[in-house]
Amino acid sequence: MDHELHAQTSFAKLPRRRFLREAMLTTVASGFASTFVSACHITSGHEASTSFGVDTMDQALEMMAGLAPLTNHGPMAAEALMSLGRADTVITFVTAYMKRFKTAYPAPFLAITSENWREALGDGRRVADWSNFFNRELKEAPWPHLLEKWSAVLAPGLAAAAAHGLIRTAHAVRSLSVKDTDLRRRELAEGLGYWAAYYQTLPEAQRPGLTKLKPGEAIKHVPLLPTAERGGGSIMLALRRLDGFAPFASASALIETSGNPEHVISELTETFANAYLRNVTPRSLVTLIHTITSTSGLRSLLPYLSPPTTEKILRFGWQVGAALYSIAAIGSTNVLPARQEIKIDNLIEQAVDIGEEHAIKFTEACLREYSQKSNPIYLQAAQDALSRIRPV
Q1: What are the tens digits of pLDDT across the range 105-115?
Q2: Virtual torsion, Cα 299, 92, 127, 141, nearest 10 deg
């Protein structure tokens, strides 16, 4: 296994005018609008075709159809490249990635149905069964309906596969929001199946009367898992160690999740970008990257979630970010880098040149968040990570 890994309610579709505006914001942080316009069809957000007229994102998904879900970052990174306006690099990236990825897709174990799904929750052996289940469900109902329903069910297990169930689902949703195709619906089924198969809850404790804090203050109250208890192994294993760390249980209740959900997400990602810079070490790099890619990924789900599900997803999104911080932080002892001009185009080119999936996904997430709230902390975090990740 890759070392790093480690109820039905109403919904409202995003109006087309708002979608086009937000798609542009998502993919264009000030300074690379020209890159976006030249590389993509402006009417579709991040669509592009190969020289053969084949849809680039769909071609990439078809190429990666046989790759096992666990540790598979390919579809996420490909979608991130599309959103960065670098559709021209997607097939090259996927071709190289497939040469490095050696895990075959697992065989089905036992079919999951609407009657027996609870017993399969969190059973990694059933990942193919879960994907098959969601593929069948997507033939019976519109994908936004399925997303709302299962986001509510799966929210308490957002830690699934070091939050990759959420992250992969979020990339699939954004891709589907641009264009609805069979391959993109299948990718959503893969993301939800990944989330369900590796569903993992974190300890919670109710604290009546606790004053709710902004994320920037709340993170100061997140207890760090003692170094002696961290051990080695995957992020998934490290997160399980929190089950025996009683002080962490109250962390999920620390923040206020009411108010504008998009503002809450900006507060979360800004907090974790700051925490990344103050705590990153070679050992904690990937874990702390996930605090931002996971919480930023929540943004892609928001247009399709009801208010109760939104509140739930924000609360557990914070909890997962706090958990990753708890198992990786060193006490915020790093000094923040000096302010300097960071050009967005340069960050994109570096991520593409490095060619590593985390470099691509993290850069895209940071630029996505920068487009929402122009805090240079996002650019600093992306630049720092790019300086640490080795090219492939």
Answers
A1: 899 999 999 99
A2: 50
